[in-house]
């Protein structure tokens, strides 16, 4: 069941809001948003996200060209993969999906070559800013990169597909490097892709964004264009993914011609094909180091029309957390609808048995406050049944209310106290900034309130904007997160050994 906010968000998405919400700047404004202490870097970062001059969406999207993953991606399951998609001007496409055993995308198991045709249709009514498309698959071929991968897939196809697929691999055939087997052919009407949980529904929802990345070299003025291709999301429930029509997005691909710099993975993926799958550069496996403050790196979209940015504070000393969820009705996060503040405690992390490289945690939400930001939300909250969401009849725009005494807010689908079973991972990006990946929310809009609903993939990463004690903050200068005027003397240097040691120690202490 979708909570009421789904409908609310849909209404809000189609009502026009004019007010622009601003990150609080003055002491007085800080006061009005409760006890939130804004770190300048965090504040700068969220402001930057709302800066419309840097991001524009191309409508209708121009897909022609070569699009690539910028790193190792994780899909529900988990599946680890990289992608390289080519769209031609005659609407034909050729897409490579490279699958791996490991979360670093260094140990390829098999590759898919997908050919077909794509036709853009119309602006999506459900997901604002997206374009709907129809696609038709002509062929899907598979190349195995080891004997083991071949056996595993053969067994899956054998188990789950009808008689027509039994012979897709000749029985007793041993692995031949480079041999391509046909999983799907429109001509012979054979389709053995279901056993792999394979569908290309991601192509039915597309969005292209242009960003301007400032140049970091001295003497270089201006910025570099980065183009991102957002394709539809994959359902978190394996049994649903073959039928699910996306309403959200996956991690975006970038144009091979206009991607962020530096991007060590980009060139490798760009040059790959089914016979030479990309093997990404080795990277250190980092323990999850939560302490500090983290913010969204983009306006995020949740399946079914919810746009938001997030801001979290984790206190490692007492394992407590605070989170701010800023909701919007538009894909550039400029028309606020409501803000949720939530807080509580979290458990010590343990390595995930299911998702290599991930850490399992449980989050308890004990307190929450809500600030409606537009009239649609005010009206909805104001008319909720007495005792079900704060003080009925007393809601007004911009005023925060504690919903802890009413055990949450029925209309927004918030129940208190509440436990969520989470999956986290941290990474350093190529500029040595810390990224935090929090588990993907169940696509059906429910909450991961049982261990068996724990996520197996991740949402868009948050970036650390301040450390536990401010130690890291100086490593993230506004210049670095994107300001026109750049000055190399302020550009980040790689973390010194002492700091790496410090991080390692922090982890030990945090436990
Ligand atoms: C497929 O399944 C049949 C029994 O259902 C079995 O005899 C055969 O060996 C299997 N083939 C493969 C390649 O696993
Ligand atoms: C946990 O510690 C931080 C300071 O490290 C403090 O600001 C916060 O209020 C504490 N939270 C709880 C629930 O004790
Ligand atoms: C909220 O409800 C109260 C009581 O029903 C009403 O007096 C008030 O005008 C409403 N406020 C808004 C903004 O709708
Ligand atoms: C860069 O910064 C240094 C010191 O902060 C300053 O002396 C220099 O003029 C700056 N250069 C530019 C191009 O802004």
From TrEMBL:
Topology with respect to the bilayer: Single-pass membrane protein
InterPro entries: APCDD1, APCDD1_dom
Primary localisation category: membrane
GO CC, alphabetical: plasma membrane
GO molecular function (one): Wnt-protein binding
Key words of the record: Glycoprotein, Membrane, Signal, Transmembrane
GO BP annotations, alphabetical order: negative regulation of Wnt signaling pathway
Protein's name in the database: Protein APCDD1
Organism, scientific name: Alligator mississippiensis (American alligator)
């Amino acid at each position: 069941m979708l909570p009421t906010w789904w409908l609310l968000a849909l209404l809000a998405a189609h009502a026009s809001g004019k007010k622009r919400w601003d990150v609080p700047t003055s002491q007085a404004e800080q006061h009005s948003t409760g006890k939130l202490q804004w770190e300048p870097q965090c504040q700068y970062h969220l402001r930057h996200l709302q800066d419309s001059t840097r991001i524009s969406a191309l409508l209708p999207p121009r897909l022609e060209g070569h699009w690539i993953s910028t790193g190792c991606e994780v899909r529900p399951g988990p599946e680890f993969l990289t992608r390289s998609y080519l769209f031609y001007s005659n609407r034909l496409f050729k897409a490579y999906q490279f699958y791996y055993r490991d979360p670093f995308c260094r140990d390829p198991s098999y590759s898919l070559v997908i050919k077909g045709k794509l036709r853009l249709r119309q602006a999506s009514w459900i997901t604002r800013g997206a374009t709907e498309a129809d696609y038709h698959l002509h062929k899907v071929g598979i190349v195995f990169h080891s004997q083991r991968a071949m056996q595993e897939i053969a067994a899956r196809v054998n188990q789950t597909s009808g008689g027509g697929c039994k012979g897709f691999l000749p029985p007793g055939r041993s692995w031949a490097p480079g041999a391509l087997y046909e999983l799907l052919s429109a001509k012979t009407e054979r389709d053995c892709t279901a056993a792999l949980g394979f569908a290309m529904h991601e192509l039915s929802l597309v969005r292209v964004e242009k960003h301007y990345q400032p140049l970091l070299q001295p003497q270089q003025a201006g910025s570099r264009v980065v183009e991102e291709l957002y394709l539809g999301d994959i359902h978190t429930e394996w049994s649903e993914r073959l039928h699910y029509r996306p309403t959200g997005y996956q991690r975006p691909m970038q144009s091979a011609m206009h991607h962020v710099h530096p991007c060590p993975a980009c060139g490798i993926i760009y040059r790959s094909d089914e016979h030479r799958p990309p093997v990404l550069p080795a990277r250190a496996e980092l323990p999850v180091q939560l302490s500090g403050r983290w913010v969204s790196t983009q306006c995020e979209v949740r399946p079914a029309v919810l746009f938001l940015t997030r801001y979290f504070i984790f206190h490692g000393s007492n394992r407590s957390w605070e989170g701010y969820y800023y909701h919007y009705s538009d894909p550039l996060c400029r028309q606020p609808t409501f803000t949720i503040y939530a807080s509580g405690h979290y458990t010590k992390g343990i390595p995930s048995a299911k998702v290599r490289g991930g850490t399992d945690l449980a989050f308890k939400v004990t307190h929450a406050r809500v600030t409606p930001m537009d009239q649609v939300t005010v009206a909805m909250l104001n008319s909720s049944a007495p005792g079900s969401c704060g003080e009925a009849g007393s809601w007004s725009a911009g005023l925060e209310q504690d919903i802890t005494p009413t055990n949450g807010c029925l209309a927004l689908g918030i129940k208190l106290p509440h436990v969520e079973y989470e999956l986290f991972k941290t990474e350093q990006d190529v500029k040595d900034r810390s990224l935090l990946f929090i588990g993907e929310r169940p696509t059906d809009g429910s909450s991961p309130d049982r261990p068996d609903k724990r996520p197996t993939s991740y949402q868009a990463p948050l970036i650390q904007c301040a450390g536990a004690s401010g130690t890291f903050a100086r490593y993230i200068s506004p210049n670095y997160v994107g300001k026109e005027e750049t000055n190399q003397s302020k550009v980040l240097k790689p973390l010194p050994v002492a700091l790496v040691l410090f991080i390692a120690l922090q982890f030990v202490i945090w436990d």
